[in-house]
Amino acid sequence: MPIHIRRLTPADSAAFQSLRLSGLRETPNAFTSSYEEECNTPLSVTEAYFASEAGRNRFGAFDGDRLVGMVGVGREAQIKLRHKAFIRGMQVDMAYRGTGVGRQLMNQAMECIATMEGVTKVTLAVTVGNAAAIHLYESLGFKVYGREHCALIVDGVPYDDILMDKKLTNEKDESDLLSSVASSGFDQTI
Ligand SMILES: CC(C)(COP(=O)(O)OP(=O)(O)OC[C@H]1O[C@@H](n2cnc3c(N)ncnc32)[C@H](O)[C@@H]1OP(=O)(O)O)[C@@H](O)C(=O)NCCC(=O)NCCS
Asked: Of ligand 1's atoms, which has the minimum distance to the CA of residue 124?
């Protein structure tokens, strides 16, 4: 059966929690949150999240009625940061990994971001050694811009994060931006 992608709603809360908890248990190094922090979350809290503005941009991949993957899209709220969107909570059910579900989810996430007026770049963080995720993001044009040492400590073991971004501006937008920076008199090298 083909996989279809759609926005998650409050009615998907139980399936979301179940997939999320299995991801947190099976691949704890891939997420900043942890199983212990989320296993007692009441269903009503997740339902309220999906009914809110903050929970609007979570997408699920479905095989029939079964939720088999998900990804979230966010946007910085502050005026000076609003040009940045980010990807979070990317996860595919173990049984469906390597079948193209992750790529479909990322394509949906990028389509969603493309509709956000004024967003010029997308950021994400991925744990060092997560070859599947890094390969997927690089194939979609994300580039490494940094590394956070000891970003996570899982069961006493420290892990670094690779920081990646993808610019969305076209050349004209970029030259407009550069000329507005030049006319502001602000020295970017400081
Ligand atoms: C990362 C993850 C979301 C990828 O989802 P997926 O459905 O398996 O991805 P896809 O099947 O679309 O594959 C994406 C690409 O990665 C490649 N890939 C898969 N496993 C790989 C591996 N171990 N090493 C290198 N590349 C790999 C695939 O071949 C594919 O590339 P291609 O289209 O050029 O052949 C999934 O592995 C997952 O849920 N991992 C655990 C949670 C996680 O790491 N989340 C990301 C947090 S940043």
From this structure: 48
pLDDT over threshold 50, residue 72: yes
Segment 29-65, tens digit of pLDDT = 999 999 999 999 999 999 999 999 888 999 999 999 9
Name all domains of the chain by residue range, CATH numbers in brackets: 3-184 (3.40.630.30)
Q: Which residue's CA is the closest to the ligand 1 atom numbered 48? A: 126
Cα separation, 26 vs 185, in Å, equals 51
pTM of the model: 0.91
Nearest atom of ligand 1 to the alpha carbon of 87: 48
Strands 121-127 and 84-92: parallel
Q: Say how many Å lie between the CA of residue 133 and the centre of ligand 1.
A: 5
Residue 190 pLDDT > 50: no
Nearest atom, ligand 1, residue 96 CA:
7
- Residue 130 CA, distance from chain mean position: 15
